[in-house]
Amino acid sequence: MEKVKQLAIIGSTASGKTSLAVQVAKAYDAYILSLDSLSIYKEIDIVSAKPTLEEREGIVHFGIDYIYPHELFDVTTFITLYKEVYQKCSTENKALVIVGGTSFYLKMLIEGVSDLPTISAHTKRETLKHLQDLPKTHAFLTEFDPEYMSKIEVNDTYRIEKALHIYLETNTTPSVYFKTHPPIPTIQSHLPIYQIEWEREILRQRIALRTKMMVKEGLIDEICTLEKKYGRIPNCMKAIGIKETLAYLDGLYTKEEMIEKITTNTSRLAKRQKTFNNSQFNNVTKGSVAELERILLDL
Q1: CATH number of the domain bearing residue 150
Q2: DSSP codes, 31-43
Q3: Of 48, 135, 199, 239, whose CB count within 10 A is highest?
Q4: What is the pLDDT of residues 208-249, one digit of tens each?
Q5: Could you give the count of Cα atoms lying within 13 Å of 38 in the half-sphere of its Cβ?
Q6: What does pTM read for this prediction?
């Protein structure tokens, strides 16, 4: 593949990543790949703050409206998607702007993930039996691999299932398996990363304003429709903005309390995102939207 010019823009929720990414994509003749754990879903539009077609300004976006709310995905979904988009950029001589709301996926693209074994039908059946009693299964795996299982909560069905698959299929502990199957980075060339920064109180004000706009644009109706169609079991139905609205529909909050809860929980998320970004990425160019515009657009 031809080497594709690419960069990443990260930042807390409501920091202005979308608008900056669109302007950069227009200047660089680029496609945009969104790494966001809610925008990837079809029909989850308002609560995800997904950019509208108007806001995309004609720039082709990937990673948006990719799967339905009842469908599962993990980091490998984004890795596969990145490879497809990179190939398309190479073929069509386009640059690529990666916009990371969920920066964990960007980290995995850079650091890589280990290839997992093919899981047989027999192993899947055995795993399902074990998963009927999570505490017992967690203790069972801990006996063989205390180092690996110490990082997994007793009720973490997804990771316990993954550990079981590896152990039952390969007769090898997860710790040993991952040491013999080290991760292979997907992005192997240098990737410039730009991080948008805001003062904490100003960001909270932006989050509060955005939350009120979501309600005005039909947040409650959107969540009602999603619940009616998909129920409350899918992981996405536990996301910030959705869970508080469901609580409002259950009569636990007034509308004002719901707005305040969404604002508070989103602000806490923004703090966690900033902490993660600051600790997980090196050689990052940081600044306000205006400062990054000057750097990226040579204004």
Answers
A1: 1.10.20
A2: EEEEE-TTTTBTT
A3: 48
A4: 999 999 999 999 999 999 999 999 999 999 999 999 999 999
A5: 17
A6: 0.84
